[in-house]
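dumping this here before i forget
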Amino acid sequence: MRNNFIAGAWTRGAGARPDINPSDTRDVIDEYAQADADQTRQAIAAARAAFPAWRRGGIQARAEALDFIGLELAARKEELGRLLSREEGKTLPEGIAEVNRAAQIFRFFAGEVLRPGGETLPSVRPGLDVHITREPVGVVGIITPWNFPIAIPAWKIAPALAYGNCVVFKPADLVPGSAWALAEIISRSGLPEGVFNLTMGRGGVVGQTLLESPDVNAITFTGSGTTGARVMATAGARFAKLQLEMGGKNPLVVLDDAELERAVEVAVQGAYFSTGQRCTASSRFIVEKGIYGRFVDGVQQRLAGLKVDHALGEGTDIGPVVDQSQLDQDLGYVDIGREEGARLVCGGERLQRDSDGFYMAPALFADAAPDMRIAREEIFGPVACAIPADDYEHALALANDTEFGLSAGICTSSLKHASHFRHHAEAGMVMVNTPTAGVDYHVPFGGRKGSSYGPREQGRYAAEFFTTVKTAYVAP
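structure:
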């Protein structure tokens, strides 16, 4: 049994939940505690009690704690990457890379602790100086998804602690193992008790308690748009500070002048790797008619050569879908695409492997219409559709015709079109001749429209959410 971490102590939950390997459902990784509302309130109270001393504590100790976490993550990336892949289903190289990214994030923010910034300006009124500083917001509730079970917690927890906040962390129910392993490292980093708390459990219990508590000053959430709307309605109603990342329906535009082999690889990497379970995945291929047929054939051939198998298996390109519910949803969208009249080029069926897991052949639809559900709704699986475009202007209009705006890509050899797309794509992130999925740890992450709400994540831009600005006037 792996327990919650509250007020500096490992605490039994009100219940327990098994962690099942999606590559082999017979493999139970461990059992993890489930916090109830009372335990969540205890964690909030511990964070609230720890905040006054932590916010005023020495920055050197804070930097050293974050650096300790980053160094241990890096040293154990193979071990923890195996755990991550075992519980979430992404391939072992992807799991190891994700742990390494988490290590880089903690070490980046260890440095940021020592670079708090600020401004001193002259006032327009004689005899006054103006000092502009940033202060922590207080207790931060962190609610994370299952698809990046250690990187997304890292890019929320690290800046929260770096800027002097206290944390109550609620990971996704499906991936408690990575969250617990991260929390165990944090528990040995030298943080005072109550500064960091782990409360594993159901969103309707733990998450809802965080949203409703007046002692939680800010909520940072990554998940579905439906849940994000509930977060906003509940926590926003009491004027908590909010940061919401809620998914996408990301376009990849492929123009006639694109290098075909490169465009196919960009499309396949962006749409299908990590089993398509990325909010930045390319789920719409918007392809100019002159290259359309060759592009569809190229993607089909590339998919035929991919190995879908156990996440820890040698040579596996794509692991399983995360659980039965997500697999059912993905297969349901394949049926919807057929019913809507799109042409299923390949894939879309459940696969049987040596171990009993949630395996699915990556699906490619062609000749999709922009108003079809498979072209408008986030599927969050290895399913993508190709939509023909008359020319660049038509492709751009199709790319922007969505309620989402997280990531958008274009494959072209035209500097003119690449530059125009970079300025006119209605997305928070734009990729030119590179997959829509895949971002650096030191630059801002986030989108527009229904994809994101509130300040950006990652890099120095994280300060916008995890701090509040104070302006002070001083008469010498």
